[in-house]
Sequence to fold (354 residues):
Amino acid sequence: MNPEGIPEQLGWIFGRRSVRAYGPGAIGDDQVEILLRAAMAAPSAVAKDPWRFVVVRDRSLLARLAGNLSNGSMLDQAPLGIVVAGDLHAAHDRQLSYLLQDCAAAIENLLLSAHGLGLGACWLGIHPRQHRIDFVTNLLCLPEAVIPVACIALGQPAETKEPRSRFNPAWVHRDRW
Amino acid sequence: MNPEGIPEQLGWIFGRRSVRAYGPGAIGDDQVEILLRAAMAAPSAVAKDPWRFVVVRDRSLLARLAGNLSNGSMLDQAPLGIVVAGDLHAAHDRQLSYLLQDCAAAIENLLLSAHGLGLGACWLGIHPRQHRIDFVTNLLCLPEAVIPVACIALGQPAETKEPRSRFNPAWVHRDRW
Fold:
């Protein structure tokens, strides 16, 4: 383990950081497919896989997302965004909790695989903000039961950040609280 | 990319599988700390880090968890379990949605890092099942605002599974649904 307590063999997990600045350079459909394969390699409750994905490359759609998602302005520079949503009819027992947990696990895999491919990515929250949910639902023509959870901005990284953890020993308990 | 469409440079993400059978062999506190550092390297909404962890090694507690969590019987053979919970007072805007998403991202990092260390792990759901929430809350003396999300069983793997994705092209849309 290095001085910051980050084990070198797990650098791929500690090196993933939110990248909000993107330079020129496309992201091909082959790379997008790898990201989606990684996302769908996550576990889901009872393997119901309620996750759904909308790959947004249309510049006018990206501009509208950039203008309506909090801290989402980088989408105006990004070659693409991936909206991750959950189908409530597909989720285990139609529970929103499972939908959110399953989508979040898939998103984390997507972010880690983007980092593994040398891409930059940032998680932009949609759920539970109702005005963002409504906006994205209307913009992307989502069916009624499909709930947008987040939009992942993706691009060639134009900023570098050091690996880190926000490890806090105060958040760890032994056997009982 | 190999014939199954799994890129070899991302083997660590596709090779993580739910491992439910454990052999003899302890997991030291040094390895547990790496797992927790990896979990806390996940992103969280507005970096509020609402995740909390209870590392359970006590055999009587593990036996009670094994008997009360659905499909959790492997906890009776596991050297430890880690209960991941969220503090609703710490979550962004005190929203359960953010708590669940943040904890799920941390859990996925924990599972991936366990795989990276050669350990076996399995995600056992707690939230949103109220009887499981109440049982774990009482057993581990969780404060009122701390909501248990899942218990991660951990051990030396006694089964091997092939890397895979459950990639389904029908779950992918372009620009609009």
Notes: Chain A touches chain B through 73 residues (CB under 8 Å). The CA atoms of residues 25 and 163 of chain A lie 24 Å apart.
